[in-house]
Amino acid sequence: MASRVHIGILGAGTVGGAVHDLIVNGHLARFGVDAEVVKVYTRTPEGKPRYGTSPELFTTDPYEVTGHPDADIVVEVLGASGPDDLCAQKDWVVDALRNGKSVVTANKALLVAHGDEIWTTARECNQAVRFEACVGGGIPIIGPLTQSLSAERPAAVYGLVNGTSNYILTEMAQRGRSYGDALASAQALGYAEADPDADVGGRDAEAKLLLLASITFGARLEPGAIHRKGIERIHAIDFLYAARKGRGTIKSVALARNAGGALEAMVTPMVVPDDHFIARIDGVTNAVFFKGEVSDGGSPDAGDWDYVFVGPGAGGGATAVAVLGDVHELVARSGDTPFLPVESIVSGVSSVRPEDDLRASFYVRFVVRDQSGIVGEICQVFGDKQINVSEIWQLEHTEEELESLVGAGKGGAASDEILPFVITLEETSVGQLRQALERIAQKDFVLAEPLWLPVWRA
Ligand SMILES: NC(=O)c1ccc[n+]([C@@H]2O[C@H](COP(=O)([O-])OP(=O)(O)OC[C@H]3O[C@@H](n4cnc5c(N)ncnc54)[C@H](OP(=O)(O)O)[C@@H]3O)[C@@H](O)[C@H]2O)c1
Q1: Using the 8-state DSSP alphabet, how is residue 338 labeled?
Q2: Are strands 102-105 and 129-130 parallel, antiparallel or unpaired?
Q3: Catalytic residue (one of 101, 208, 229, 291)
C-alpha cells in the first residue's frame, strides 16, 4: 500500500524547483511513496516554471508553508545572503517543527549558524531534521555515517567537498592554467558564483566540515575556529613542483581526525601523493573518505581510508535526489522514534587541537631575488626554530612564470633575478612554521609571501 506524504517547500530556486519536479513526476512512487506538494514559498512566484499552471500552490508568506494543515514534511531549500536572512529562515524552520512537521534541509549555512536552536526544538517537539543534501550535494554521506557505520569508531573523515575549488585546481594541474583563468572558466560554466569567495576561500567547505565533524565526532566547532586556507594563492608552478618533485598534486582537503583523543580539523590545500585515491578525484566531483578503527583492524597494512563516497557534489537534480532520499527515510520511519539529532551521537574526542598546534610536514614555496647565501639563511631560521629541512626542490621556469609569481611592482625585480624554489620540512607545528616564516619574510631578498601547504599524511 502506498504511503501518502504531503510536502511544503520553502524555496523555489535550483534545488526547490528540482524537488518539485521529481515529486510531480512520481520519483518516489516505485518505493510506494505517494508524495504531493501542498504549498511552495518564494518571494517571487511569478516566473517560476510551475506558477503558470498551478498559481494556487505558491505563496509569498513562509508561514503558510510552515503552518499548512496538510503538510507532513517541510523541505527547506532557501538561499541566504546574510545573518538576518539566516535568522528569519531559522524562525521558519522552528515554526514548522513546533507545528508538528519534520524538516528536510539542504541549507548548511542555516545549520552551522543556528543548529543548536533547531536541534533543541526538534527534540522538544519530537520531530526530525534531516540534512543529507548539506554535505556533498548528491552523495549519500550523512545516512551512511550516522546509520550504516554507526557501530564504527571513527578515526578520520575527510575529502573534497567543494566542487568549485576542485574544478579550479584540476584545471591548473592538468592544463597548466593560471588561477585566474581557471576561475573564469568555472564561472563561465556555472560552477562558481559571481562572488566566489565562499568557495575558493574555503568557507563553504568549512561549513560542511563542521557538520561532518559534528556527526562523526560529536564535536561542536564554531565557524572561523579551525585552520582554514583558500586556494587563491596557489600558482600553476606549484603543480609542477608537486608533480615532478613530490610525485603528487594539490587538492583542497577538508579534514577532521581523532589525533590521540584531540580533534584536528582543517580546510586547506594540501600536497597529496599520486597513489592516494583522492588525487584522482577531478573536476567538480566531490568525495568523502572515512576511516574507522574497527574496519581498519589495527593492521599496519591498512590504507589511509576504509570507505569512500564519490559523486556529484552539487546540481539541482543530484541535490533534489538527496532531499527526497531524506523524505523517503522519514516516511519509512514514520511512527518510529525520530532520527536522532546530531549532538546525541557519541563523540570519541575530548578536546579540539588549537590551530597553532596542528602538526604536519610542509611544502613551502619561496620566491626570492637571486643572490648567494639565501638558502643557507632560510635554513638557518628553520634550524633556530628546531624545524628540520627535508628537501630543497628547484625547477627551470619560463619568463612568464617568473613574472607572474612576483606580480606587478614587487621589488622591481627583472625576470632573470627572480628565483622560485621549494623547501619541504619534516613534521612541525603550524605555530612554529608561522614564527619561522615571519622572520624569513623580513629578509630583503623575499619577493613574495611564501606559500606553505601541509603534505598529506593519514
Ligand atoms: N544548488 C546546489 O547544487 C546545492 C547543493 C547542495 C546544497 N544547496 C543548498 O540548497 C539551498 C538552495 O540552493 P539553490 O541552488 O536552489 O539556490 P537558489 O537557486 O538561489 O534558490 C534559493 C531560493 O531561496 C530564495 N531566497 C534566496 N534568498 C532568500 C532570502 N533571503 N529570503 C527568502 N528566500 C530567499 C530564492 O529566491 P526567490 O524567493 O526569489 O524564489 C530561491 O527561491 C541553499 O541553501 C544551498 O546552499 C544547493
Answers
A1: P
A2: parallel
A3: 208
Indicate whether residue 125 lines ligand 1 (CB < 6 A): no
Domains and CATH numbers, the chain: 3-138+317-342 (3.40.50.720), 143-312 (3.30.360.10), 358-455 (3.30.70.260)
In this structure, are residues 74 and 96 in contact, taking their beta carbons and an 8 Å threshold? yes
Mean pLDDT value of segment 44-54: 95
State if residue 315 touches ligand 1 by the CB under 6 angstroms criterion: yes
Model pLDDT for residues 171-204, shown as the tens digit of each residue: 999 999 999 999 999 999 999 888 899 999 999 9
**Closest-CA residue to 33 (of 393, 453, 332, 302):** 332
Instruction: Give the model's pLDDT for residue 114.
Output: 95
> 418: buried, middle or exposed (CB in 10 Å: 19+, 13-18, 0-12)?
buried
| Closest C-alpha among 210, 348, 38, 194 to residue 202 | 210
- Taking only the tens place, the pLDDT of each residue in 85-103 is 999 999 999 999 999 999 9
Which pLDDT band, with edges at 50, 70 and 90, does 344 fall under? very low
At 406 the pLDDT is 83
Query: How many Å lie between the centroid of ligand 1 and the Cα of residue 381?
Result: 49
208 among known catalytic residues: yes
Asked whether 107 lines ligand 1 (CB < 6 A), one says yes
Give the closest residue to 107 by CA, choosing from 9, 227, 217, 236: 9
- What is the distance in A from the centroid of ligand 1 to the CA of 16? 8
Average pLDDT over residues 228-233: 97
| CA-82 nearest atom, ligand 1 | 31
∠ CA 223-226-229, nearest 5°, is: 100
Quote the ligand 1 centre to 80 CA distance (angstroms): 7
Q: Mutate which of 15, 22, 166 to test ligand 1's pocket (most atoms within 8 Å of Cβ)?
A: 15
pLDDT at residue 337, rounded to an integer: 47
The grid cell for 339 is: 532520527
Model pTM score: 0.92
Q: Kindly give the distance from the C-alpha atom of residue 15 to the centroid of ligand 1, in angstroms, as a whole number.
A: 7
Nearest to 97 by CA among 72, 115, 79, 114: 72
| Weakest mean pLDDT among 183-197, 241-255, 431-445 | 183-197
